[in-house]
Amino acid sequence: MKVCRIVSVFLIAGAGLVFLPVRAQAEPAEQSAPAVRQEQPLDLGEVVVSPTKTERMISDVPASVTLIKKKDLEQSTARYVDDILRYQAGIEVDRAKGGLSSPSTFVRMRGFSHPRAVAVLRDGAPISRAVCGGTKWNEVPVSIVEKVEVTRGANSSLYGAGAMGGVINIITQDPGDKLEFIVDEAYGTHNTWESTTTMKAPLIEGLGCVVSYNHLQTDGFYPYIGTDPVFQAAQRDNYRYNDNLFGKLVYDFDDATSLSISHSYWDDEISMGREHNHTDLKRNRTVAGFKRKGDFFDIAVNAFYLDEEFVNYLDHKRYEDCGELAQVRRRPGVDAGFNVAVNFPLPGDQVFTVGGDYRWAKMKDVLKGMTRTAPILDKDESAYGEQHRASIFCQDEIELGKLLLSVSGRGDWYRSCDGYHFKRQWRAGAYRISDDSHYPSETDAAFNPRIGAVYHVTDSTALRGSIGRAFHMPYLYSLYATTECPPGKTNEGNPDLKPEYVIAYEAGIDQKIGDDATVRLTGFYNDITDWMETSFRTAVGGKTYRWSNIDKVATSGLELEGEYKVFGDISLFANYTYLYTGIKKFNDPPGAALGYPYTAGDYKGNELPDQAQNTINFGVTFDNPDILTCSLKCRYVGERFDDLENTTRLEEYFTADLLIARKLTEFMEIALEINDLFDEAWQEDDGWLASSGRTYMGRVKLIF
């Protein structure tokens, strides 16, 4: 009944959008960059850069693109960027363990079940981790964000490894031309405090700065709902203490040339729900950027450096006693590199882009601890590895009347080296050190082309489509490390992993209906070869999974989106995503060799984990500064499997978030935030709650 009710609401909203009367057409957009059409009949938003590395109107991009602006963030209950991404079509967000206290968030697109298939950038520099493919979204509070550009679909022809399901570029705020202080204080359920102070200031002519400090602390809640009595007896609140410090300097040489440098410090201490089970994450990230627009070419250069250390404290849960510290794991890492893109306007309404990038990453896993029946383990390097990546790419964008054609290609080279891992064996109730393993260097290369087109049928209708190849090489954790994620699931690295690749197809239509409504429909199909996934290996000493290549996988789906501005103060949005994922062939599952009942035939036809077939988002916003701002966003997620073996099914859920804000004076605003309005807790990992139910936050914001 719940599904029928939600689908009915969505269909009624969609019908209202489709049958709106057609009124005046959109006005031409005024642009100065050579890459932007001089006449823009179909305005589906604003100028974006990420999809093509050139300035384009969204309606001129041969991909499904969403622009999330600062105002969208302010009219939501989002604290981090992933909180607003969950309401976009085709994006699955999994903040699995403890909601706000979750140590990690998985953002997935287009049916790819691991977040490595999404390339995440901040100001054009990658922040998705080279060592594991994921992104620590807790590092990016919304207080520093100006806008977010979301490009769906394969884009390795410009962005290389990782851009299989899409690209997300988070663009931070610039200083502006006047001094501004913002103090934002909030308090709510689970003794949650959030404090944000931001300053934007011009310093001297051409030079300005942004400084922002964000602190969040919460007692959290205990998210474990499994049946293990030892876990239940040892439970503690899932507390969290998070500090973000961000600073950015921007120097404008003139209207066409700018230089920026930013640095962020992130410290996140998170309890895992037991006294001796918690994590401390620290990062220092520096990004420098240079941009120049000229008569003959435009250039953009980014350089980045990340120094991080993650420390995990684990208890003796294996021995049915969580009261003692068992081991401490330190995982320091470095991620550094640069990228450059140069755009040349050519005769005949063409823009030619050429560029390249280099990235170097290394990881170390340092294990110190003991078990009760084994000697102390004290390994300076229980795992180690380095990876070097280099690439060159080019793109030609051609405007032929109503047709815009984009052809691009990128060559990627990579080398994984200095791989090392000490082997552990489970004997007589304890871990014992076996032989150390050193792995030979592996070098490989890939070429990823893409062709896309947009055809403006009328001033209000555009057709778009693309076909391209994308890939990802095995990352360091999947090659050499042993990790536990989520708790209770051990994932073993596999140095024999092969790179994965996809041939991606996409077609869509964008329809403007009058001045106030837009409908978009996109269909896609991904033919994936050698997809890297963890599959069941053994149950000895606890469940263990091993990274493996699945020979053939397919994902496909439809994304339907609609937006309607009813009148000046009220706007509506709705989107529906249908998704199919399926394993076509898995010849060598690791558990089969050990006699476990998961053979090649058992996996054929299985769905990829965490991928719901049906997802619906819809919402309404009333925004009148003289009265109040009220925003309601609702989300339905259908059933999905928690594991590749399809043995555990997670139930569907429906949730809603409400924001009510009132501007009391020119300098003061108050707000009430209610998350999970209908008080429905749900799971995004088996045995762990992602939500405790309805929560409240009161907020006061001062602007000077």
Describe the structure.
It is a single chain. This protein is mostly beta strands. The chain has one domain: TonB-dependent receptor, beta-barrel domain (Maltoporin, Chain A), CATH 2.40.170. 6% of the residues lie in helices and 59% in strands. It is built from seven helices and 38 strands. It has a 22-stranded antiparallel β-barrel. The protein is globular, with a radius of gyration of 25 Å. The chain starts with a helix and ends with a strand. The relative contact order is 0.13. The model is unreliable at 1-43 and 425-433 (pLDDT under 50).
Key descriptive features of the protein:
single chain, 704 residues, mainly beta, Maltoporin, Chain A, 22-stranded antiparallel beta barrel, 5-stranded mixed beta sheet, 38 strands, globular, disordered N terminus
Q: Brief description of this entry?
A:
By secondary structure, this protein is mainly β. Helices cover 6% and strands 59% of the residues. The chain has one domain (2-703): TonB-dependent receptor, beta-barrel domain (Maltoporin, Chain A), CATH 2.40.170.20.
CA-atom Rg in angstroms = 25 Å
Task: Give the number of domains.
Answer: 1
Mean pLDDT: 86
Assembly type: single chain
Any chance you could write out the topology, listing elements then pairs?
Blueprint (H helix, E strand, L loop, with lengths): L1 H17 L28 E2 L7 E2 L7 E5 H5 L6 H5 L5 E4 L11 E4 L8 E5 L2 E2 L18 E8 L3 H4 L6 E7 L7 E9 L3 E13 L2 E12 L10 H5 L6 E15 L2 E18 L2 E17 L4 E18 L9 E22 L3 E20 L7 E24 L2 E25 L2 E10 L2 E17 L2 E12 L3 H5 L1 E3 L5 E3 L7 E14 L3 E22 L5 E24 L2 E16 L14 H4 L10 E11 L3 E10 L2 E2 L7 E2 L2 E13 L2 E8 L7 E3 L2 E2 L5 E9 L1
Parallel strand pairs: 6-9, 25-28
Antiparallel strand pairs: 1-2, 3-8, 4-5, 6-7, 8-9, 10-11, 10-38, 11-12, 12-13, 13-14, 14-15, 15-16, 16-17, 17-18, 18-19, 19-20, 20-21, 20-22, 22-23, 23-26, 24-25, 26-27, 27-28, 28-29, 29-30, 30-31, 31-34, 32-33, 34-35, 35-38, 36-37
